[in-house]
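User: I'm curious whether this sequence folds into something compact or stays loose and floppy. Could you predict its structure so I can see for myself?
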Amino acid sequence: MTFVVIEPCIKCKYTDCVEVCPVDCFHEGPNMLVIDPDECIDCTLCEPECPVDAILSEDDLPEHQRHYLDLNTELAKAWPVINQRKPAPPDADEWREVKGKLDMLQR
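Assistant: Here's the prediction. I'll summarize afterward.
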């Protein structure tokens, strides 16, 4: 099992989660983070650290969010590892509650 970064991360990209990851499974894109499912050890440390609840266990993904597992897998292969906290984008708080952000994902 793995943890998966889902839509609330898009345009927020808080990095609180990467500091607690013991295996460096997070990868950073232009406006979102993803988790490499091959590296994730299911330690559960990252999930409570996310301020926008954008990390879920694979087993807890609602059906309408299942495609994020494939998206995390794909993008983790293309994006670099991030293992240190960075400042969130200046407008991150404005995007916290916005729904339907998938089309805003920058690859």
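Summary: The helical segments are 16-20, 67-78, 92-95. The beta strands are 3-5, 26-28, 33-35, 55-57.
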